[in-house]
Write a structure and sequence with these properties.
Blueprint (H helix, E strand, L loop, with lengths): L1 E6 L3 E7 L5 E8 L5 H19 L4 E6 L2 E2 L6 E2 L11 H9 L3 E5 H12 L7 E7 L3 E7 L2 E2 L36 H5 L1 H10 L7 H9 L3 H25 L3 E5 L8 H9 L12 E3 L6 H7 L9
Parallel strand pairs: 1-4, 4-7, 8-11, 11-12
Antiparallel strand pairs: 1-2, 2-3, 5-6, 8-9, 9-10
Length: 302
């Protein structure tokens, strides 16, 4: 058996999977925000509770909203800021008295969908998270790719490619730059674009519903979003050439993306054709916690 932990900003979720990927137990507890010591204790307590239900588990994988710095061994780039600068993997290993594997939550998403999700059986998978922010993860042969700087898949902080004049310099991004992919393709970015072009203050799902009903401003905003998503994914395909791209996050629920975006990719991909399928995730919000469990390969593999 294997345990996966997903450390979110408001909740910590845990799951137990058997070797076939069948869910045996699932629990969640509130995240002790701004308290690192309590967060480590909460994860350890959750693992104890899960093992009390399912019996001892062979491994623990943890998905985090950040990454372990290869230089310092400490957490970096975490929106749960109280984790930054801490040796989380070492502290969890001490608290749990066993080895622990950590990975960025977007990488966990890609691993989950590669293991038994929408990209099952694919060799190279790119998981694109289109939510409050824009993240991404890469799985090759079912394993997460971290990269030399622990930022593999972070396409959201590249500039929007092939920008039109009215897209320059682009909205400001929290990273300190302007025009990042995230500022255009996140849920808040989509909503902002709609408001700035004659729309109301609506959530992305509401804008998409208006677009489906033929409302002009919403339809135009969705058209711009589709075009920008195709351009941004084309650069990923040019670089990585994945077998499958899987979408996650709230924007992945817009059904029209799966037909419209692939039709545009060939306009931007450096090839005379583009056969890369774009798929909706199979496991939804469970992909992160399931992928954390799959960070440990089957017994006998390293």
């Amino acid at each position: 058996m294997r345990i996966g932990i997903d450390m979110g900003g408001t909740k910590i979720e845990g799951i137990v999977l058997d070797e076939a990927g069948k869910e045996l137990a699932r629990l969640r507890v509130p995240t002790p925000r701004d308290d690192y010591t309590a967060t480590v204790k909460a994860v350890a307590g959750l693992v104890d509770e899960l093992e009390g239900i399912s019996g001892p588990a062979a491994s623990v994988g943890v998905g985090i909203p950040g990454a372990v710095s290869p230089r310092t061994g400490l957490i970096k780039n975490a929106n749960s800021a109280w984790l930054i600068g801490r040796p989380l993997d070492k502290d969890l290993e001490a608290a749990l008295a066993r080895p622990v594997r950590l990975a960025n939550d977007a990488n966990c998403f890609a691993v989950s969908e590669a293991a038994d999700g929408a990209a099952q059986g694919a060799g190279v998978v790119f998981g694109a998270i289109l939510g409050t922010g824009v993240g991404g993860g890469v799985a090759i042969a079912g394993r997460a790719v971290q990269g030399a700087n622990a930022i593999a898949g972070e396409w959201g902080h590249n500039p929007l490619p092939w920008p039109a004049d009215d897209e320059r310099p682009g909205p400001p991004c929290y990273c300190g730059k302007r025009g990042c992919v995230e500022t255009f393709l996140s849920g808040p970015g989509f909503a902002l674009d709609f408001r700035e072009n004659g729309g109301e203050d609506l959530a992305p799902a509401g804008i998409a519903a208006l677009a489906d009903g033929g409302e002009a401003a919403a339809a135009a905003a969705l058209e711009r979003y589709i075009d920008r998503l195709a351009r941004a994914l084309a650069t990923v395909i040019n670089l990585l050439d994945p077998d499958v791209v899987v979408l996650g996050g709230g924007m992945s629920n817009i059904s029209s993306l799966y037909e419209a975006v692939p039709q545009r990719l060939a306009n931007w991909v450096f090839s005379n054709t583009c056969r890369t399928p774009l798929r909706r995730n199979r496991h939804g919000d469970s992909s992160g916690v399931r992928g954390a469990a799959w960070l440990w390969p089957p017994e006998g593999e390293s």
